[in-house]
Amino acid sequence: MKTIIVAAGVAMVLALFGTPLAIRVFRRRGYGQLIREEGPAAHATKRGTPTMGGTVIVIATLAGYAVANIVTRQPMSPSGLLVLGLMAGLGLVGFIDDFIKIYRQTSLGLRSGAKLAGQAVVGAIFAVEVLKYPDGYALTPADPQLSLFRDFGPTIGVLPFVLWIVLMIAGTSNAVNLTDGLDGLATGAAILVLAAYVLIANWQLRNDCTIYLTSSCYTVRDPQDLAVVAAAALGACFGFLWWNAPPAKIFMGDTGSLALGGVLAGLAVCTRTQLLLVVLGGLFVIIALSVILQVVSFKLTGKRVFRMAPLQHHFELLGWAETTIVIRFWLVAGLFVGLGLGLFYIQWLSAQGAV
What we know:
This protein has twelve helices and two strands; from the N terminus they run ααααββαααααααα.
C-alpha cells in the first residue's frame, strides 16, 4: 500500500507543477492546438492553446512508478514494465501525430493507416511479450486466453491472442482519443477507470492464488505492481486535470489520449479483465460507438444520427454548456465504473459461495 501511495503522490506533484512549465515551453515554441473548421463554433476560442500535454502525463507516470519502487525497495515487475512500455510506445505514436499537425499547421496529423500501423506494431510487441517472463509459480503476465473477471475458456492460441490484443489496444486508445474533445473530459473519465484498477489489482493481491488457493483466488502475476502502475497514472492525470479542466490551459493531444488508452488496455490484459474493461470504460465505448454509428448511417442512408460525432459535440450543438457536458459525462463514466466494480465483487462473492 505504501508503494501505491508514493507512486500516486509523486506522479501527481510532478504533473501538477510540471504542467505549467510545459505550458510555457509549448507556448514559446508555438505548439498550439489547431481547430477543425467544421467543429462547434465555440471551439474557435481554443485555437492556439498549448497541446501535447500528454508528455507530462507519461513522464510523471514513469517517474512516479520508478521513485515509488526505489523508495520502498519494491522490485519492478515484468507486468508493470510492460504496461508502462505500452503506454510510452503509444504515447510516442501520438506525439508524432501531434508534431506533424503542429509542423504542417493543420488539424490532420498522421494518415489513419499510418497511425493504426503504429498502434498495431506497439500492440503486437506488447501482446507477444506478456506471454513471456514466468515467475516461480510459472505465472506469466498473461496467457493466450480471453478474460472477464479472470481467464476463462480454452486457450485460443498465440496468433489469435496477439490479434485480439492488438485490436483491443487499438480500440481502447482510439476510444480515449475520440473522448478527448472537451476540456478535461477524457482526463476525468480516465481517472475513474484507473482508480477502479487500483482497487481491482489490490483486491487480486489480497486474494492471490499463490497465497490462498481457493476457487475465488486470482492467478495474476504481479497484482501489487499493477496497482502501483495504475496509481502512478491516476496521480499524473489528477495533477494534469488541474490545468486541463474547463477552461483548459493545455490539451493532452494524441500523445496523452493514446498513452492513456494504452495503459488502460495493458492493465486489463495483465489483471486478466479484458472484457470487463468494456464495462469500466463504458463512456469511452459509447463515444466510440457514436462515431461508428454516424459513419455507417451516413454511408448507407446519407443521413446523420447525431448533429455531430463524437457524441459530446452533438450535445454542444444542442446548446449544452461545455462544463455541463463534461460533468454529466463524468457522472456517466462513474456509473459504469461502479457497475464494473460491482460485477467484479459479485463474481468473487459467488465464487466464495461455491467453495
